[in-house]
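Dear Dr. H.,

I hope your travels went smoothly. While you were away I took the liberty of generating a structure for the chain from your last submission, since the lab meeting agenda had it listed for discussion. I wanted you to have the full record in hand beforehand rather than looking at slides cold. The sequence, exactly as received, is reproduced here:
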Amino acid sequence: MTEYGGYLPLEMNEKGGELYSENNDYTVWRLNCGRSAIVAALKSCEVGRVFIPYYNCHVVETALQKYGYTISKYKIDRNFMPLLDSISENDWIVYTDYFGICTLKTKEEIIRKYRNVIFDNTQAFFSEPIIKKGVFNVYSCRKFFGVSDGAYVISNRKTDIDNLYNKDFSWERCAYLIKSYELGTNGAYGDSLQSEESIGYEIKLMSDFTRIMMQSINYETVREKRNRNFNYLVEQFADINDIKLKSNESTAPMIYPLLVHNEELRTYLIQKKIYVPQWWKYLIDTMKESDFEVELSQYLIPLPIDQRYSLEDMNDIVNIIRAKCENK
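The corresponding predicted structure, in token form, is as follows:
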């Protein structure tokens, strides 16, 4: 029954709509997180082995193991392409669009070679979905926006997943977002880790709260700001970045990937309140020193470029990094 009276709840603007909504070309599944989205996609298919990259978040591997999938891992070359021969008919490959900079041409090449592909676009929310048989596109909400959970799966598969899984609830998980608004991201960092851990591995449908928040976002403004900041750093760091990048106006990357062989830089940036993570450093102890994945784990600096920041902020980051690198 409809409730009347009482206190006033949060007021959200629903007029904008989601970036990804069902249409004549594709189906959208709304789920609770990226790893659930990958598993849900596989559960709708006949699956032999699942190939995943070594350079990847361990929660994806854990989720696949919990649901009983046979996993094989592959390495990547310096162009982030799989070092993997063609796979068997019922095998699937999870290909990560690292940082959100993968081109459509590269993804089409992946499809031609591997047949059954899940594009892990958790770092590439604005990457256009590829709608073909044997292809799924997975997106994460919380890596790009101020929400505590949520993911999309986009494909041409017409499965009614609303009757397969229970709906998630976000109210216990999103308190850190309010805390960070008042105390800053560092002030709520521990709370954000607890929130992320609470998502767990059960496949659930996207919560109503996350969906209404996703309907209130001005996506074009977010896209423009991310691209502006990314392109500025492409220009400023072209001479020192070991990853060669090009400017873009459409993909709106998650971060700017700066690869420089400076072992002190990450700690220095954190001291300057530029909070940059070290992704998947366990690979340093589990792979060969010559592997590209180890180099990325040791030296990659994921610089923030998101919609919170102006060009002045980007210039401050450039000056701090230049000062440290030039005084190495």
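Two observations you may find useful: Residues 28 and 154 are 5 Å apart (CA to CA). The mean pLDDT is 93.

With kind regards,
E. W.
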